Amino acid sequence: NPTKLDEELLLTPEKSLGLLPAVSVEKPPYFTVIYSIIAGFAFVFGILCKGIVDCRNKKWRDSLSHNGQFHLKSQQEKEKHIIETLNENTTSLFMGACIPRRVRYGIPLALALNLALLLGAHSAVLSTINVDATLAGEQFAINNFMQFSFGETLRNAS
Fold first, then answer.
1. 33-42: per-residue pLDDT in tens?
2. What confidence tens digit (pLDDT) does each residue in 104-121 have?
3. What's the helix, strand, coil split of the chain in %, to 5?
4. 3-state class of 151 per DSSP?
């Protein structure tokens, strides 16, 4: 077709007249099923581990003598009392008098700016492919043939 643009030839493998290999980018649905099964196993494994640890702790507590259980309970009550006393008598580091105002508000602001820069960098274009080629004796250029960004890569991976 003489009216066909050179860019149309290179846009998709299906339209390349067999010059480019057709590559499937669509993932079969069983990948999602496999990922779900793996996530489910990880979740069940975590619940089982927590249950095993709780069971072992209960066995250990039950194996303590009456005197040992008394000391454990008194230690737990002492720790609870210390935490309550600290909560009543101290202020947070953010509200502390020894922290300068510029640090108190500057650190959260710096963290927010850091997060904004991270998100901005991940959404920006990392690289661009420009095609300059000669086909059948004619030169042509395709600007912005492909663009890569970290965010687009993450979206395509899922």
1. 888 999 999 9
2. 999 999 999 999 998 888
3. 65, 15, 25
4. helix
C-beta atoms surrounding 72 within 10 Å: 13
Report the C-alpha gap between 12 and 98 in whole angstroms.
63
- Which residue type does 132 have? D
pLDDT, the chain, mean = 83
Specify whether the CB–CB gap between 15 and 8 falls below 8 A.
yes
Which positions ≥6 away from 64 have C-beta within 8 Å?
72
Whole-angstrom distance, CA of residue 5 vs CA of residue 57: 73
Tokens of 29: 């649905």
Buried b / exposed e along 3-12 (16+ C-beta atoms within 10 A): eeeeeebbee
Measured distance CA(33)–CA(35) in Å, rounded: 5
List b or e across 23-45, with b for residues whose CB sees 16 or more CB atoms inside 10 angstroms: eeeeeeeeeeeeeeeeeeeeeee
